[in-house]
Structure prediction request, 112 residues.
Amino acid sequence: MKYLSLHEQLKYGSLIVKFMTYHINVQEEMELHDWVVKDLRNMSLFENLIDDNNQEWAKKWFYNAGVSTRGIKWKKKNGWYKPETKNISDFYILMAGVFAFLLIVYLVLEYL
Prediction:
């Protein structure tokens, strides 16, 4: 996307990073919105930069534009995407503890 000057890449790239890190103020958000809807190429660039599936390309684009991406929480996309889940063994340990507690309560009440 070479239609933007380096100055524009830095300016709008910085606004996009602020948007992605939830550090954008109302005035900056309005400026970014106006720029995005001004041209279909801007909208396409914006969508590609915030899309998790394009993160490697987006990182290179931001780097070439001179924009720091610190603060962006990139999702790991190695192989098939697997959402982070809690350890299932913790669930089984908790359920075993609940079962043992209920068994003890039952036995105490049965033999009193």
